[in-house]
From TrEMBL, chains A, B:
Pfam families according to UniProt: Transket_pyr (PF02779), Transketolase_C_1 (PF22613), Transketolase_N (PF00456)
InterPro entries: THDP-binding, Transketo_C/PFOR_II, Transketolase-like_C_2, Transketolase-like_Pyr-bd, Transketolase_bac-like, Transketolase_BS, Transketolase_CS, Transketolase_fam
Keywords on record: Calcium, Magnesium, Metal-binding, Thiamine pyrophosphate, Transferase
Single Gene Ontology BP annotation: pentose-phosphate shunt
UniProt-annotated catalytic positions: E409 (proton donor)
Transmembrane spans: none
Feature type site, description Important for catalytic activity: H29, H260
Protein name in the entry: Transketolase
Assembly and interaction partners: Homodimer.
Record text on cofactor binding: Binds 1 thiamine pyrophosphate per subunit. During the reaction, the substrate forms a covalent intermediate with the cofactor.
Claim: Magnesium is one of the keywords in the record: yes
Length: 664, 664
């Protein structure tokens, strides 16, 4: 048991490391670490199951700092608890180039940072995914191997963001009772008191969606401990509203917006030292306090050892699969399974929508990979995300492999990220491509974190038809391709869809989006190649660069338009070739030689895509011909829209012929 | 008073028009119109203040169909009530090319469509903006001129989307008691029963944020009327949860997901005709019922006349301003005021961040235009969105001109759209550029609707520094430029900022985003031109095409980098010119001659922008040199980041020189 005095000094260590680091960096957010230090100290000294020496322990409790601007809270904890990645020098280098202690916590910078946070609400939604992952893996591997809590520290900002509603309603519905949210209820946001803009009773709000809630004094260690203890016994997820004073200890600025996001200044820090009785120099933690923290870091070492023993005692197959899944490796049989599936397709190439082709590919993938967990934001039948292997999970039964995410695209994407981060799961989830806009902040974070979340985005153009321009993506391919480290696939037929899915599954360091058609597509790949042609981003599909006067580049549903244009051009005596471009990003990564060979030497280049031109110049040149959209779509049957907007083989062929004539 | 029998027949008219139109289109959503027909009938026959013959009546009640997929409900109503834009032929042409009856309601297609809906939750958030606009205009013009309700029909989808939380918490806080939300509580979503994915008690949820709530039988006309009557007397916004049966009247499919989004089929429709005692042919409304509806459409004619009389009786200045604002015209003095402000700037060009320059411009704009309403998503001090004229509004006092939107970027953008749609207001609202991702679905709709919402996006690059890659936009300029009909401005100094603001304010048919720097920028425009150079999208800032060997194109904070690069190149004997490109979209709209002249003939073209290349090829060509970002940013002081990522005058000059050498 930690005495109150010791608790206070341990919490103050967090406060002063945070104040000092922000002061030295001349930048950062001292308010949250100072205000939430008591909460964090209780959590990490009395509850957190983790092992700083083995930070990747699969069954550790997860701690998510959803209020990521309070990064110094996390860095202080990691340093104090003995995580090797965060040294005192890293703390001193807070927010400097190359440091592990970035302005906001960045996944991958240091062990112990479970997710990248800062964009508000994301961490909370990630944590819902982590808690779902825990339950799913628990259902598969039992309490012996998977049985941990997910703790979240969230602020007013997280709870005001809409994504928090999507996350909490899903968590409440699934009764994720091992999810415990500590709400740093300091009533202050950047513009001032939260009463400027909000009157929500957060406890009542969470209760309305089935949560257990409590209100406590966030500076009373016993109250905090009692609340967490009680939360652990609940059959529902718990929100603990901890009333705190932001910047606790700052003599004149605490409790105000001034302490939120700026250095306190030397005078205020000196005042805090006096007020809290802290004599140590900046960045110095008195050795007895550091010892106490390091000791706290050892609390779960025995528990981890016992867990290792249980893992060792498990049957070899279970252990092997568990370890493989947690590493994120694929079974060796995977590529053979995909090849076999492709062979089957090549034998009788189906004319199906690529969303249907995706379902067929998933049927093969889900059979080969027990770790895939599907889902959709209430468009299951349209996204074709459900296969024979994927029964839905529910509060009563987590043995399924499908999540009905509800009409919550943003929450879905962020929860998927949480599952990926948890490990042991490869999540994929669907909505319409146009609604990628709703999920975009989470999709961006997946890219930044370099994690394998897979977004299934169907109805990928005006090809969706009558639903009209609100539902027709036009700029979305370009907008998603703009995100660094995001693989955007737009396959042209069933074989390409299988290949793209395989690359997405095998890309451990990048998320993927599959843009898929609503409408049926004629097969363009009919022969079987062992090679995954889509893995190179673009490839020559038809014709030859030897004699081609025109190269037609296209993606997805427009590849068959390009093939028809080629036929027209060939017939008119202008040999043409077709290059399919399922993934810009991967094509960009190829060697210059390969790219030049694929781009080819034909004097006329035409790109066909039912989206905007932006991004295509990199392939066809700024003098290339683009056949696509220049504005929003319209509401009408799809074939009429293609004609109306001039995305036809005739239009492409005639533009190419006109250009050829100009060239003489 | 309408008898129950008459009510039923009037409601059935909506049901059959909807069924028949969806059936003929072979596409659409019959479930909601059939389920919500009773609600809509009560609302429009007993409450709605509107005049089909004068649909733009400023003080009409607004009706927002947030569940936009139920568009046939709205089209049926407009036809039945006598709105001239929606004829029976338009109903028959539902979802066909060129019809006014698009798949989802589209603002601008027909009078009576108050906003474009379909992307779920947007309409609800629009309505919060409309209700805010009503209160603000009421505070200015009094009950005589502005005193109306905003009614919303929302479904489960709207309420599951996170944006609904942002909207309802803001509405509850502001006690928008003239906002009445009719929740079509049919417990069905596309994947099946909402119990698959949600357990939220919606009434309890809304109450937690200060709403008045009721639960009623959504098929009982008197219960509906009683609830609306009671809501009108509340001092808080009201949610009326109307329990309905989706697809009411469909004999085998009602109450199931099957009736949500597909034609019912001839047999089911025949069954419905039988069940509901409806003998009329498809698209025929028995004349007595049509007469009753048309009569209902005349209910408010007298009230409108009385309102016209009050407006006529108002003093000329008030009336003039009111009418001008509602038309969306600017006062004639506006351009002179902006010119005067520019002259002042030119006399002493300040070295300020463009976010500060924006505040200065707003100081002039807000003085000239009483209709601007500012705000920020809790970043007021950072976005510099508040000026001396803009005190905050609150539940108690709507005479202010500033909205503390809270940490609700998406809700803010959608509420701004609602204000714009209401009329009488030009809203602008701020957040960090990177969080435009959170607001993107609403920003897209502003573009699609062609309305003047103005988004102030500060901290527009790695120039924000230490907050790191989560907060550093990299792809956002490209992603926003990708949206059709969206003006993305990135001004280089105070004068450009003033010019861009002026164009944004004057662009009645397009929303604007101003991307603004955190860091100070040296003035690049020091002389005074009467012309608004930014209005042409790009212009020659320095040097001359006569002798230039290099043209440097840049935007915003990188224009001063380009100017420094020009100095280096000039000194090295390679005359250079600089083109500032504050707005791609506007540049694209210029004549070929102008564009050619600005692009110039220098053999080497370099673009400098602290974002990704995507989109720039249209200006510099695919062989042009790009100095910018290729991936995510990092956490460090801004000057270090510019060096680290090589966005410097030296890098630009040396790349240009290398290319010149290659060219020989």
């Amino acid at each position: 048991m930690i005495s109150r005095d010791k608790h206070d000094r341990m919490a103050n260590a967090i406060r002063f490391l945070s104040m000092d680091a922000v002061e030295k960096a001349k930048s950062g957010h001292p308010g949250l670490p100072m205000g939430a230090a008591d909460i964090a100290t209780v959590l990490f000294t009395r509850f957190m199951k983790h092992d700083p020496k083995n930070p990747d322990w699969a069954d550790r409790d997860r701690f998510v700092l959803s209020a990521g601007h309070g990064s110094m809270l996390l860095y202080s904890l990691l340093y104090l608890l003995g995580y090797e990645d965060i040294t005192i020098d890293e703390i001193k280098n807070f927010r400097q180039l190359g440091s592990r202690t970035a302005g906001h916590p960045e996944f991958g910078h240091a062990a112990g940072i479970e997710t990248t946070t800062g964009p508000l609400g994301q961490g909370l939604a990630n944590s819902v995914g982590m808690a779902i992952a825990e339950r799913i893996l628990n259902a598969r591997y039992g309490d012996d191997l998977v049985d941990h809590y997910t703790y979240v520290l969230a602020g007013d900002g997280c709870l005001m963001e809409g994504i928090s509603q999507e996350a909490l309603t899903l968590a409440g519905h699934l009764k994720l009772n091992k999810l415990i949210v500590l709400f740093d209820d300091n009533q202050i946001s950047i513009d001032g008191s939260t009463s400027l803009t909000d009157s929500t009773d957060q406890c009542a709000r969470f209760e309305a969606s089935g949560w257990n809630t409590m209100r406590i004094d966030g500076h009373d260690p016993d109250a905090i401990a009692g609340a967490i203890e009680s939360a652990k016994g609940s059959d529902r997820p718990t929100l603990i509203a901890c009333r705190t004073t932001i910047g606790f200890g700052a003599p004149t600025k605490s409790g105000t917006a001034k302490v939120h996001g700026s250095p306190l200044g030397a005078e205020e820090i000196a005042g805090a030292r006096k007020a809290l009785g802290w004599d140590a120099e900046p960045f110095v933690v008195p050795s007895d306090i550091l010892d106490d923290w390091r000791l706290a870091g050892l609390h779960s070492a025995k528990e981890r050892k016992a867990w290792e023993d249980r893992l060792a005692a498990a049957d070899a197959e279970t252990r092997g699969e568990f370890e493989r899944r947690m590493r994120g490796d694929l079974p060796e049989t995977f590529s053979a399974a995909m090849l076999e599936y492709k062979e089957k397709l090549a034998a009788e190439p189906p004319k199906v929508a690529s969303r249907k082709a995706s379902e067929m590919a998933l049927e093969a993938i889900n059979a080969a990979l027990p770790e895939t967990i599907g889902g959709s934001a209430d468009l299951t039948g349209s996204n074709n995300t459900k296969t024979s292997q994927t029964g839905p999970i529910s509060a009563e039964d987590f043995s399924g492999r499908y999540v009905h995410y509800g009409i919550r695209e943003h929450g879905m994407a962020a929860a998927m990220n949480g599952m990926t981060l948890h490990g042991g799961i490869i999540p994929y989830g669907g909505t319409f491509l146009t609604f990628s806009d709703y999920a975009r902040p989470a999709m961006r974070l997946a890219s930044l974190m370099q994690i394998r979340s897979i977004f299934v985005m169907t109805h990928d153009s005006i090809g969706l038809g009558e639903d009209g321009p609100t539902h027709q993506p036009v700029e979305h391919l370009a907008a998603l391709r703009a995100i660094p480290n995001h693989l955007v696939f737009r396959p042209a037929d069933a074989i390409e869809t299988a290949e793209c899915w395989q690359v997405a599954i095998e890309s451990r360091k990048a998320p993927s989006t599959l843009a898929l058609s609503r409408q049926n597509l004629a097969p363009v790949r009919t022969s079987h190649e062992a090679d995954n042609l889509c893995a190179r981003g673009a490839y020559e599909l038809a014709g030859s660069d030897d004699d081609a006067r025109v190269t037609l580049f296209a993606t997805g549903s427009e590849v068959e338009v390009a093939m028809a244009a080629k036929a027209l051009l060939d017939a008119a005596g202008h040999p043409a070739r077709v290059v399919s471009v399922p993934c810009f990003e991967l094509f960009e990564q190829q060697s210059d030689d390969y790219r030049k060979a694929v781009t080819g030497n034909a004097p006329v280049k035409v790109a066909i895509e039912a989206g905007i031109r932006q991004g295509w110049d990199a392939i066809i040149g700024s003098d290339g011909i683009f056949v696509g959209m220049t504005g929003f779509g319209a509401s009408a049957p799809a074939p009429e829209l293609y004609k109306h907007f001039g995305i036809t083989a005739e239009a492409a062929a005639s533009a190419a012929q006109k250009r050829l004539a100009e060239l003489g």
